[in-house]
Specification:
Elements lengths: L2 E6 L5 H11 L5 E8 L5 H8 L4 E3 L7 H14 L4 E4 L8 H6 L4 E5 L11 H8 L3 E8 L9 E8 L6 H24 L3 E4 L2 E4 L7
Parallel strand pairs: 1-2, 1-4, 2-3, 4-5
Antiparallel strand pairs: 5-6, 6-7, 8-9
Helix pairs in contact: 1-6, 5-6
Bound molecules: 5-O-phosphono-beta-D-ribofuranosylamine (GRF).
Length: 206
């Protein structure tokens, strides 16, 4: 069965591109059905349109989070979305979206959570002086970068690194990690036990 993805992105969209490539290459049993952004000029929207994927800018406006998320949910439902992937979506998800897609929203964050949540995580890690940095794909809950962890990828920090060179290596890992996590979800292999995510056998080989 093909999983229908809805991607929410605020920016350049390299993770979206990685997901699109993995889907097109048959690495994940999924298709991106719709891309939504809260920023009018987000390159991610252009990227989606260039591939013929419906892409919408939804203006958050002054009406509040619930009103904005109701419009997001409508678009997702119109396109039959099963799984929502946040890919550089710069908003904290609220109850409206969380309730509608409970347990079906993923996010990628450029640090080894729970270290360095929030903005500019790669720079935070570099400034702190960690020797190992990385990225995390996790389920989204009401916290900021706080939900159950699906997988993490580590990146060794070298003395010659700058925040930019470190960030670039983390991004390469992100592009592998996100499709991998989507594949595990699509194969129904992710089992939640409290806040621990176990990777089971799922539908592999069936
Ligand atoms: C990535 O570093 C991701 O981990 C973070 O925002 C960035 C989005 O980059 N949440 P892109 O738009 O996918 O290139």
């Amino acid at each position: 069965m093909t999983l229908n993805l809805g991607v929410l992105a605020s920016g350049r969209g390299t993770n979206l591109l990685a997901i699109l490539a993995a889907a097109a290459g048959g690495e994940i049993p999924a298709r991106v059905r719709v891309v939504i952004s809260d920023r009018a000029g987000a390159p991610a929207l252009e990227l989606a349109r260039s591939r013929g994927i419906p892409a919408f800018f939804l203006d958050p406006g002054p009406a509040g989070k619930a009103a904005f998320e109701s419009r997001v949910v409508s678009r997702l439902e119109e396109h039959g979305v099963d799984l929502v992937c946040l890919a550089g979506f710069m908003r904290v998800v609220g109850r409206t979206l969380l309730d509608r897609y409970a347990g079906r929203i993923l996010n990628i964050h450029p640090s080894l959570l729970p270290a360095f949540p929030g903005l500019d995580a790669q720079r935070q890690a570099w400034e702190y002086g960690v020797k190992v940095a990385g990225c995390t794909v996790h389920f989204v809950d009401r916290g900021v970068d706080a939900g159950p962890i699906i997988l993490q990828r580590a990146v060794t920090v070298s003395e010659g690194d700058t925040p930019e060179t470190l960030g670039a290596r983390i991004l390469e890992e992100e592009h592998r990690a996100y499709p991998e996590a989507i594949r595990l979800f699509a194969e129904k292999r992710l089992v939640l036990e409290g806040r621990r995510v176990k990777v089971g056998e799922g539908e592999r080989g069936t």
